[in-house]
Amino acid sequence: MLDIRYDENNLPELANLIAKNYDQIDENDKTGVKRIAVLTSGGDAPGMNATIRAVVRAGINAGFDVFGVTRGFHGLWKGEISQISTRDVSETLQRGGTFLMTARSKTFSTPVGVVKGARMLDIYGIDVLVVIGGDGSFKGARDLARIGVPVIGIPGTIDNDVASTEYTIGFDTAMNTAMEAIDKLRDTASSHERCSVIEVMGRRAGYIALNVGIATGAECILIPEISTDFDKIVVRGILDSRNKGKRHYIVIVAEGAGTATDIAKRIEDATGIEARPTILGHLQRGGSPSLRDRTTASLMGVRAIDCILENRFNRLIVQRDDKITDLDIEEGLKMTKSISAEEIAQTKRLS
Ligand code: F6P
Predict the structure, then answer these.
(1) What is the pLDDT of residue 188?
(2) For residue 185, how many other CB atoms are within 10 A of its CB?
(3) 237-276 pLDDT, tens digit each
(4) Who contacts 273 (Cβ-Cβ below 8 Å, separation ≥6)?
(5) Which residues contact 227 (CB under 8 A, 6 or more apart)?
(6) With bands split at pLDDT 50, 70 and 90, how would you rate the model's confidence at 26?
């Protein structure tokens, strides 16, 4: 292990030292890696515990000592690192949230924070860091990789907005939670002949809104990827449905496309139909993970350990063409994905 005298004024030199230390790992065979650490970062997602469990168990079975970092990158630079055993992850598979806890670290988004994090990994003798989170968390991991710390990323976010993968852990559970809530809202909207406007999460992406809208038979789905003519699509859509005899209406708005409160007011003003807004909010982030999230989490965790055993570092574990695979972290962060106009157009054929 390096004996580092940490000096805020000498960050480049420190980064070089750390890089030199980690460089040796690439030349070693798989026995070169002895200690790995895992953290969860960004917004929590159902299935994060199942992912940690998979990394811990597959890691220990491969002969590694596995450490957990609490509070994401924020805990990392503060040295919140301790060893986890196979038994420590018992009964976590079915639990929502993340027992390692998570945070959005301002410090870690600066070069000083990244070097501080690398220094802590070096102090604890950690050879590889596994990061569970979204693109923001992967940028943190990529910054560590750039100064020589081997990393592996596993996508965990309810938003499904990580471009390099078709699927992110937590997405399925969040959509099912939203769908069940909207089914309940439909009952009361129907009794009162109202329009229920429901705001779902997704940050700048509309994946939750699109799928939940299809699954709940929404009149309109508003997403940030596609601009919508409010009068022609929303107002006309609701009035057409009413004129065909419909007595209640569901409108789904992705948080990146507007607010339920604003859309409900505009619908009521334009149509005279009573409209009520509901923001599903953090409800969508909780709960026991679905079968899909548990299995994806488990398989992705195992794949992460496979990468380490095969000396393939700085990889993102992804789902492509329905298969769990991995790709280079720099490459993955350059990718983009979006929802096409055709996808949203198809939903209109169902109303
Ligand atoms: O990224 C997950 C997510 O739940 C987004 O859908 C949402 O915009 C954001 O996190 C909310 O963040 P916070 O938990 O900080 O309120």
Answers:
(1) 98
(2) 19
(3) 999 999 999 999 999 999 999 999 999 999 999 999 999 9
(4) 193, 194, 195, 238, 242, 249, 267
(5) none
(6) low
Give per-residue burial for 37-71: e unless 16+ CB within 10 Å, then b: bbbbbbbbbbbbbbbbbbbbbbbbebebbbbbbbb
Measured in Å, residue 193 CA sits from the centre of ligand 1 at: 32
To 10 degrees, the CA torsion angle through 117, 118, 122, 124? 30
pLDDT band at 351 (very low <50, low <70, confident <90, very high): confident
Distance 259 CA to ligand 1 centre (A): 15
User: Does the annotation count 23 as an active-site position?
Assistant: no
3-state secondary structure (DSSP) of residue 313: coil
Contact assessment for residue 254 and residue 227, using Cβ atoms and an 8 Å cutoff: no
Contact of 157 with 45, CB cutoff 8 Å: yes
Whose structure tokens read 């509309």? 206
Assess whether the C-beta atom of 211 lies below 6 angstroms from ligand 1: no
Which of 98, 135, 158 best tests ligand 1's pocket when mutated (most atoms within 8 Å of CB)?
158
Q: Where are the alpha helices (DSSP H) in the chain?
A: 11-27, 48-61, 72-77, 111-123, 135-146, 171-192, 207-215, 236-243, 260-271, 291-309, 329-334, 341-348
CA distance 233 to 221: 10
What domains lie within the chain, and their CATH numbers? 8-169+289-334 (3.40.50.450), 172-286 (3.40.50.460)
| Residue 178 near ligand 1, beta carbon < 6 Å | no
The answer to whether residues 276 and 227 touch, using CB atoms and an 8 Å cutoff, is no
- Per-residue pLDDT of 125-174, as tens digits, reads 999 999 999 999 999 999 999 999 999 999 999 999 999 999 999 999 99
What letter would DSSP give residue 59? H
Rounded percentage of the chain residues whose pLDDT exceeds 90: 86
- Residue whose tokens read 């976590």: 92
Q: How far apart are CA 215 and CA 13, in angstroms?
A: 55
Q: Hey, what's the torsion of the CAs at 149, 155, 160, 164, to 10 degrees?
A: 60
pTM over 0.70: yes
Residue 81's identity, in one-letter code, is I
Residue 159 is encoded by which pair of tokens?
A: 């938003």
